Fold this sequence. Notes:
The protein is an alpha/beta fold. 49% of the residues lie in helices and 15% in strands. The strands form three sheets. Strands 1-2-4-3-5 form a five-stranded mixed β-sheet, with helices on both faces. Strands 7-6-11-12-13 form a five-stranded parallel β-sheet, with helices on both faces. α15 packs across α16. NADPH dihydro-nicotinamide-adenine-dinucleotide phosphate (NDP) binds at residues 165-168, 209, 237-242, 261-263, 317-319, 342-344, 369, 372.
Amino acid sequence: MSYVDEVIQYAIEKNPAQPEFHQAVKEVLESLRVVIEADEEKYRKEALLERMVTPERQILFRVPWVDDKGQTHVNNGFRVQFNSAIGPYKGGLRFHPSVNLGIIKFLGFEQVFKNSLTGLPIGGGKGGCDFDPKGKSDHEIMVFCQSFMTELYRHIGADTDVPAGDIGVGGREIGYLFGQYKRIRDCYEGVLTGKGLTYGGSLARTEATGYGLLYFTDEMLKSNGIDIAGKTAVVSGAGNVAIYAIEKAIELGAKPVTCSDSTGWVYDPDGIDVAALKEIKEVKRARLTEYKNYRPNSEYHEGRGVWTVKCDIALPCATQNELNLDDAKALVANGVIAVAEGANMPTTLEATEYLQANGVLFAPGKASNAGGVATSALEMSQNSERLSWSFEEVDAKLKNIMVNIFHNLDDAAKQYCLEGNYVAGANIAGFLKVANAMEAQGIV
Length: 444
Ligand code: NDP
């Protein structure tokens, strides 16, 4: 059996009942085959791939908290510190009822390669909790965040592990988490990113993942001789990534016509009104059913369905495995040119293969959504310097990083005769840097 197949098998056996983690390992290792098989005995002897698929540390903890009515609840907290070969662990915290160890491991594993691709000195980690923030009062969110940090604080630090936001963790939650860390540790340091601007946050961090997705998509299209201006885009999600992807798409002259949340989706033939969307989601924290009050020409549909809308560009920005094979077939039948992932692993393996086989330009999330973590690393730099950069300065660095990521993976794909396969290019480029650092540091 080839070494790659052995390690895929190893990851499945050692991590039972973690399908998302198995999926991420398969996706990455399959595309590394060409690199590994060129020097298989060396990698096998060092057990390099076994070390890569095994987190350096996994922390599981109880999060007890009391709601506004006096009822006690218990949630499960996680922090997976996956790989610190090229820098302190870095990766978001997700608060969502679907969170479990397998999901956090898949996200942490992907994060290792993503962070490597940014060219910045950050290792990979991820964390979260099976807590559902929906319907909770501000006070309950604060109490919960304080309890979560009362355990997490002992495992993180500005030079050790620097968490950020993810699904269900935005500026409000980061604020409460930071306040509790500072109180317990009596230490004012850049231990979390995504902070508010008055206490160490970076300008453009809120916008970074969505903007970065569009900078990447624009560069990918340009390098294939296509202009983004005038193109119709369908977007899923209505959270942080989706909102700023829509905003930047409009700025670049494209027309995003959909967005969605976990209950339904909106089609606006005149193009999404991003100011209305921000008010509904960021200010009122309401459902998308409200959108029709702002735009009477729009349609609201229950359930899922954005991928059935005719478009040139598809931007999945909600969650994992939200674009399946049937969706990919519908997109191809409607003439889609490019799919760029804003979320982490939103496209299933079968759907990715179908899109690639049908000539669709496909940008994997670990490259195209790396703008968020890249700007988090810029926030860390500003915190270390005890300085703040202007919006324009951060945005210019972000754009530069996204353009570089595209060329980095495009070059890696070409080098291994896989031109146009951006999935393989991203995995190979991300892998080579981490593997090199691991080998240099010995068996640790
Ligand atoms: P948010 O919580 O701000 O928004 C998530 C959006 O996706 C919401 O509209 C939510 O709807 C929807 N959604 C979540 N889960 C599901 C589901 N199971 N089915 C359908 N819709 C769902 O999260 P972000 O925008 O921050 O993150 C979105 C994705 O992008 C995630 O995969 C995340 O890991 C990834 N990502 C985020 C980065 C960041 O900087 N924020 C950086 C890189 C990647 P509802 O409100 O109804 O739950």
